[in-house]
Amino acid sequence: MFFTIVWSDSYKKTLFYKFGELLSAIILAIILQALSHFLGVWNNGIPLNETLPDMTEEFYQGAIRILFSSINVTQALALLITPFAIWGPLRNNRLTLPIRLQAINQSAARALMVVLELSVDVCKLLNYYFPQKKKKQMLCPNHFWQSIEEVSKWIGPLHALAQFSQLMISISRFFAVSFEGRYFETALRLPYLQLLIPYLYCYTYYYLDLLFNEEQLQPWAFLKEQADYFPYFLQLSFDYMVYRKMKMVKHAGKKVSRAEALLLIQMVANSICVIISWYVQTFLQAIVSLYFGPTTYWFITNFGATLHMIMFEFGIM
C-alpha cells in the first residue's frame, strides 16, 4: 500500500500525467498524418494503364465542366451565407470569447479567399467566352487581370489562415474539457493575442515558402506538404479527444446540454469530412488506378479535389 501511494504521487509529478491528454492528441495526429502519407505513397506508386477499361474523353470533358461550374456555384452560395456565419458567433454569448473571435476570423478569411477565387474565375470565363480582344478588354481589362493575378497569390495563405483558425477552435474546446479543467481559465486569457497566432503561423510559413523556393531547397517541398496537411489531422485528433470526453460524461449519467449535443454532431460531421477527403479519396484513387484507365483516374482525382473545396468553403472541414 505504501509503495503504491508513493508511486502514485511520483507519477502525478510527471509531465505525462499533467499533459497526457495533450501528448495523446499530438501522437494521434502524427499517426493519422503518417497513415495518410503512406496511403498517398501507395497510390502514387501504382502506374496508370491505358489498356484498362476507361471513360471516353468526351464524357470526361463534360463532367469536368460540370465540376468546375459547381465550384463557382458553391463559391457564390458561400458568399451568401458568410454574413450569417460571422453574425452567429458575434452575437452568441454562450461561446467563449477566444472561440467567437476565431470563428469570425475563419469565416472572414474564407469569404476573402472566395472573392479572390471568383475574380480569377470570372476573368478566365470571359477569356473563354469572349475571345475577341475588344470585348475582353471592356469586360476584364488587362490592369484588372494583372491586379487579380497578383492578389491571388494570397489565396493559399488565406486558406491556411481559415484552417488554422478552425484548429484554434478545436484547441479551445479541448482545453475546456481536458485536464480536469485545470487549464480552462488559462485558455481564456489574452483572446486577442490568441487571434494573432493563425496570422503569425500562416504568413511566416508563406514568406518561408517564398524564401526556400527561391533557393530551391528540395527538403522544403516535403516539409511544406506536411505543414499544409498537419492542421487537419491535429484538428481531427483534438476533436476526437473532446468527443471521447463528452461521451464519457454522457455514459456517466450526467445530462448533456443542447449546445453540447450540437457540438458533438458538428465534430462528428467535421471528422467524417476530413476522413473522406484524406483517406477515402486516396484509397478510391488507388483502387480506380488498378482497374480503370487514366482518364477515369483523373476524373476521380478532380472530383475529390472539387468535393474538398466545396466542404472547405461551406465551413464543414
Q: What is the correct CATH architecture? A: Up-down Bundle
Determine and state the CATH class: Mainly Alpha
Q: Tell me how many strands there are.
A: 0
Strand content: under 5%
Largest sheet: none
Number of domains: 1
**Uncertain segments of ≥5 residues (pLDDT<50)?**
1-7
Q: Can you tell me the CATH topology?
A: Rhopdopsin 7-helix transmembrane proteins
Give the helix proportion (percent range).
over 70%
Derived from helix and strand composition plus strand pairing, the structural class reads: mainly alpha
The helix count comes to: 12
- What average pLDDT do the residues reach? 79
What is the alpha-carbon Rg in Å?
A: 23 Å
Give me the strand/helix succession. Answer: HHHHHHHHHHHH
Shape summary: globular
Termini distance?
Answer: 49 Å
Transmembrane segments: 22-42, 62-87, 108-130, 263-284, 296-316
Keywords: Membrane, Transmembrane, Transmembrane helix
